[in-house]
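Sequence and structure are kept together here, with a separate record for every protein. An example record follows, reproduced without changes.
>
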Amino acid sequence: ERRDAAWIAQLRDETDRYFQAHAAYEQKTEEAARDAVGSEKLMDEGRTLLTTARAAVHLPLVTEQLDQLLKSHTGVAEARAEKAHIRAEIVGHPAAPWKLRDLAGKSHSLADYRGKVVVLDFWYRNCPWCLRSVPQLKQLTAAFQGQPVILIGMNVDKVEADARFVVEKMRLDYLNLRTDDDLLKKYGMVGCPAFVVIDRQGTVRDIHLGYSPTFYRDMNDLVRQLLAQR
């Protein structure tokens, strides 16, 4: 299609407004998922951001995107409220204990790592986002080599051969244990990848579900904060 300069300028302005509103909305939803008390208010503020942007745009290319976000808002708000509720029940409380075996048959328990910052990574072979997280997990392990920090892979595959395949092919250089969905649920998680951060006193300090391109940066900052605490 050929468009005149005025249309192009309008497209530029309206798409800028859309992306700004979308980014601000995403920030509100992230905050809402971490705040059980303020979740509803934060999501209402997010919806206001979208409706304000929707009233200011007119090109179908842009209005359709905002209409779609507004249509899905109620479901997003409910999901974030549930996530915030789960977080409130888990974070700040003692971590659920466990005793598991590694791929060599050696037994390990959470109590063995008291005094260390523990990062648990729940994963399975056919989870693409789990495998995509591996480079950042290796980077995290290297960053805290020799410090009281341990990353533990928590494999939930039904068949041990699947766990061995990934450990060998991807050369996982950190401890991996065999577990199941029951422990995953005890930590308030419903899928993988899922990450649980436990401080040196055995208290859960953070939980995260899903892949994040900024996982290493965010986790590095959090672990350093926990190491600095006495």
Strands lie at 99-102, 107-109, 117-123, 149-155, 175-178, 194-198, 204-209. The helical segments are 5-32, 39-56, 60-90, 128-143, 160-169, 181-186, 215-228.
